[in-house]
Amino acid sequence: MALLGTVTLAAVLPARGGGAVAVGRTADVAIGLLFFLYGSRLSAREALDGLRQWRLHLVVVTGTFVLFPLLGLAAGVLAPYLLTPQLYAGLLFLCVIPSTVQSSIAFTSTARGNVAAAICAGTYSSLLGMLLTPLLAAWLIGSTARFSADGLLTISVQLLAPFLAGQFLRRWTAPFIGRHKRTLGRVDRLSILLVVYTAFSQGMVEGVWGQVTPGRLAALLLVEALILTAALTSTSFAARRLGFGEEDRIAIVFCGSKKSLATGLPMAAALFGPQAGPAILPLMLFHQMQLGVCSVIAGRWARRPSS
């Protein structure tokens, strides 16, 4: 509801001129703080301990950074007829961002899966995404959209540097973050909403939303539904064929089939600049779709008989 309200606000009252500059700079600061908090929350010791289940994490990483990009490229056959170049660029970007952490853990826990593995898998995916997402985006999207190479440097300065600072200062910041978890959680959400407002405002001012007709929106939803179905089916099939136990299979399916809105939106803003509006729309829609579908799956698995 907050995302929908933010998009509506940007449509009715988009930031213009000096206001747009101020909102953009505020969003940049908020994103830096967001990734500083990510770095402060991550326990390097827990992440290293989780490497013992390297086979599980390898399957999740393959699904996130190999299977999804291949599905995105396969959807390119439909792009000239169903999607605008900007929407297809956003779809490709969706396919190269890392997996979620919080929702993967929540769904795995609900379905009585391996929660510890889900925590580590989501963490590794996020860390790898800081390196792989901009590189894959530059490779796959560079010729499809007005992709800015300067975005690679922006990723380092705006996202990676605060994350590393959070890791370095974690000894001092972690206790404070632990005591104020709820308040800082609101900071996370506010940062995401600022990115959405800034990107959609730019799109309104430049008139790019006139290209997103109801027909193209319906086509985008259909393509995303097919991609999500393929990801869920493939991760489940691979986990079974590789001989993973039931709890591990649950973690693989939920971690290997989802994409992170919290990480993807700031990266899209950094990489696409003024063209970020249409680029983030596929991610926002996929985010809602994956939450709805995975909540149903998690509920069904939660009702299975205990072994």
Automatic annotation (TrEMBL):
InterPro entries in the cross-refs: Na+/solute_symporter_sf, Put_Na-Bile_cotransptr
Membrane spanning stretches: 56-81, 87-108, 115-141, 147-169, 190-212, 218-239
Keyword vocabulary terms for this entry: Membrane, Transmembrane, Transmembrane helix
One Pfam family from the record: SBF_like
Presence of keyword Transmembrane: yes
Superkingdom in the source lineage: Bacteria
Protein name: Bile acid:sodium symporter
